[in-house]
Design brief:
The complex is a heterodimer of chains A (about 120) and B (about 525). Chain A has 4 helices and 5 strands. Chain A is of the alpha/beta class. Chain A has a single domain, classed as Transcription Regulator spoIIAA. In chain A, strands 1-2-3-4-5 form a 5-stranded mixed beta sheet, with helices on both faces. The termini of chain A are far apart. Chain B is an alpha+beta fold. Chain B has helices spanning about 10-30, 35-50, 125-175, 180-195, 220-225, 260-305, 355-375, 380-395, 485, 490-495, 500-515; strands spanning about 50-60, 65-70, 85-90, 95-100, 110-115, 195-205, 210-215, 230-240, 240-250, 255, 320-325, 330-340, 345-350, 400-410, 415-420, 425-430, 435, 455-460, 465-470, 525-534. A 5-stranded antiparallel beta sheet of chain B has the order 2-1-5-4-3. In chain B, strands 6, 7, 8, 9 and 10 form a 5-stranded antiparallel beta sheet that branches. In chain B, strands 11-20-19-16-17 form a 5-stranded antiparallel beta sheet, with helices on one face. In chain B, a hairpin with a 4-residue loop joins strand 14 (about 400-410) and strand 15 (about 415-420). In chain B, helix 1 packs antiparallel against helix 2 (about 35-50) and helix 3 (about 125-175) packs parallel to helix 6 (about 260-305). The N and C termini of chain B lie far apart (about 130 Å). In chain B, about 35% of the residues are buried. Classes of the chains: A alpha/beta (about 120), B alpha+beta (about 525). Chains A and B meet through helix 1, helix 2 and helix 3 of A and helix 3 and helix 4 of B.
């Protein structure tokens, strides 16, 4: 069952890894966007969003994720989503996010994808 | 194809300038935000007006202060307030020019161009040029708004598809869940996600108050969510309980919004899915229980049928007939006429308290023990005592057997009998009277207190008869719930049919009972054994 939202971030191999826990809604989306902006302004263009602990995303939270994807694409960067719950995976697919963002099983796989271009 | 001109020539410079402008216009048309647009536009203007600093302002309403989107910081050369839409302005020193343009969404853009150094002055022609370029900005801004609108429409369309898809998926997932709490959680998660609610609650109440509450997200508390102003509710009743689904505070990126009609429809649909799932689960359990009972009845019926005699023995000098009509629920009636090695016959009539498999098993036990004990030549009283003990050991206190067991010596007509709490057996004597052979001991399996069973001895004269039966006959009921015994006492029937042969007597008895009960369902087994000494 979904908890209150928390966010952790780390930089691995020049990639920003954002790991969420709980409901990705307006509050969650804002926190993700703020953390992303902080790193984006510092030059980070490769981002992994690990949604392992988030089983519920609403469209407001998703709009923040779309903004991040747009900003990265405009800047020649890339975002990869990982550890997706099937329901969230389907949601992001229907909303068209995977036309502009990647998807990987886990963070390690995403890191390989972002650092080698595979 | 790219145009070419000698390097350094005026034409070459002009071509470069045109290419640069074309590139600028391409970028302008692709700007994703107003700031991007302002940056790109300033970049173009800086190429058109050399040595210029471009300041781009925007305001949603003419009454508002200008918001700066581009150019150096303080001091801000804000467009003059008296500058009207679609007009240009050249200041007295010709060091700056400015213009204001009303855009397609009624907002305004203000442009101020200032000289970096004092080497050049702007002219009226520059003001006209600026007016022309600001039209380009308006076009690019329209394009930005269209793209943004298109993006919003695609997002909204996708979101509707998502809502529909999720509704279908949730219906399938909900039907697979068997834990009620998990059912509530899933429905809450989906409802909150699809309506952008920030919080949710499922409350189950009965007449005694709140039975359970499930929150989304976990950790919310009743008092906190109930104080929230924007909410929608959907509820249903099932199994004596009320299930209420509540969603609170519809989110947007600009604050909390009132819920829409669609949100209420979605919540209602999800609540209906949970309701249907609970009903289906209940019906499924009922069906399983019904199937289990039917299997049990089938097995019990088959056990009982194997124990009951296929045909009664032919006893020289006697006419005997019996019948067992099991009720739908399979009772525990048992009758038999067992030929013993010493030439005697054991007449048995028994009725187990209860129905179904337990009753059938107990009948089976009685049959087995009785068959074994009858071969030992013990007295009937001792046999009854032993049967009582073994039935006490092998059954629960609420399961007991009433039984009438008699040993007939055919040559003399002597009958030795014990009645373990069973209905009285009717002995129709030649003098026209009917004597009851009443209970002489407690039912088997009721009390393990070594209470004695008393033998009763009678001698059946020629032409005399005995009727053994179970309570399914006197307690047969019609559709008005009247008892057969009350309307038509068995002794009266006996008197009316005292000359009938055994087979006919049984047939007439059953016909009489059926005529009385009519279409009322048979509630208990009907069993009878009729013996006539010829």
């Amino acid at each position: 069952m979904e908890q209150q939202f928390t966010l952790t971030s780390e930089v691995r191999d020049n990639c920003l890894v954002l790991s969420t826990s709980g409901y990705v809604n307006n509050v969650g989306g804002e926190k993700i966007a703020e953390e992303f902006s902080r790193h984006f302004e510092g030059g980070t263009k490769k981002v992994i969003v690990n949604l392992a602990q988030s089983k519920v995303v609403n469209s407001i939270g998703m709009s923040f994720l779309i903004d991040i994807v747009d900003q990265l694409n405009d800047a020649g960067g890339k975002l990869v989503f990982t550890n997706l719950d099937p329901a969230v995976d389907k949601m992001l697919t229907i909303m068209g996010l995977f036309q502009f963002a990647g998807k990987a099983k886990n963070v390690d796989e995403a890191l390989v994808s972002l650092t080698t271009g595979n | 194809m790219k145009a070419s001109a000698p390097t350094g020539s005026h034409a070459h410079q002009l071509l470069n300038q045109i290419e640069s402008l074309q590139d600028g216009f391409r970028k302008l048309s692709k700007a994703a935000t107003l700031k991007d647009l302002a940056d790109q536009f300033a970049s173009i203007l800086n190429r058109i007006f050399p040595n210029t600093q471009t300041h781009v302002f925007h305001r949603v309403d003419p009454g508002e202060h200008w918001q700066k989107h581009n150019g150096p910081g303080q001091p801000l050369p804000v467009p003059p307030d008296d500058l009207t839409d679609s007009s240009g302005y050249l200041d007295k020193t010709s060091r700056s020019i400015c213009t204001v343009q009303r855009l397609v969404d009624k907002s305004q853009i203000g442009l101020v161009l200032t000289q970096r150094s004092g080497t050049r002055k702007y002219s009226d022609a520059d003001v006209v040029s600026l007016r022309l370029f600001v039209q380009l900005f308006d076009n690019a801004y329209q394009s930005l708004l269209y793209r943004r609108k298109e993006k919003e429409l695609v997002f909204a369309l996708n979101h509707r598809v998502l809502q529909l898809n999720s509704l279908i998926d949730t219906g399938i997932e909900v039907s697979k869940l068997y834990q009620r709490i998990a059912l509530h959680q899933l429905a809450l998660e989906r409802a909150a996600s699809l309506t952008n609610a920030s919080k949710g609650l499922v409350r189950v109440t009965s007449k005694n108050g709140v039975k359970e509450e499930t929150f989304f997200p976990v950790g919310e508390r009743t008092r906190k969510v109930e104080n929230l102003s924007h909410r929608i509710t959907s509820s249903f009743r099932f199994g004596g309980k009320t299930y209420t689904f509540k969603l609170f505070e519809k989110e947007s990126r600009h604050g909390i919004l009132p819920f829409e009609e669609t949100d209420q429809l979605l919540l209602d649909a999800l609540a209906r899915q949970v309701h249907a799932s609970l009903e289906n689960r209940y019906l499924h359990q009922q069906e399983l229980e019904k199937q289990k009972i039917e299997r049990e009845i089938s097995v019990a019926a088959s056990i009982q049928q194997r124990i009951l005699p296929e045909a009664l023995p032919v006893i020289d000098g006697y006419d005997i007939a019996g019948i067992n009509i099991p009720s739908k629920l399979v009772g525990g009636d048992y009758f038999d006429c067992i030929s013993l090695p010493d030439g005697r016959y054991a007449l048995v009539m028994a009725d187990v308290a209860g129905k179904g498999m337990p009753a059938a098993l107990l009948v089976s036990s009685l049959h087995a023990y009785l068959s074994a004990y009858l071969e030992t030549h013990m007295s009937l009283a001792e046999l009854a005592g032993r049967l009582n003990k073994v039935i006490c050991r092998t059954s629960t206190p609420e399961k007991f057997i009433t039984a009438f067991i008699a040993l007939l010596t055919p040559g003399t007509g002597d009958i030795e009998a014990v009645n373990a709490g069973h209905n009285p057996v009717y002995w129709m004597k030649n003098d026209g009277t009917i004597q009851e052979l009443k209970a002489s001991g407690v039912p088997f399996g009721m009390l393990d207190l070594d209470l004695p069973y008393k033998n009763e001895q009678i001698r059946l004269g020629k032409g005399e008869r005995v009727l053994l039966y179970t309570d399914g006959i006197p307690e047969a009921t019609n559709q008005r719930s009247e008892l057969y015994e009350s309307a038509s006492p068995l002794v009266d029937f006996l008197m009316r049919h005292k000359l009938a042969p055994a087979e006919l007597f049984i047939k007439d008895l059953i016909d009489d009972i059926k005529s009385f009960t009519g279409d009322a369902p048979q509630s208990d087994d009907i069993t009878a054994l009729y013996l006539v000494r010829k």
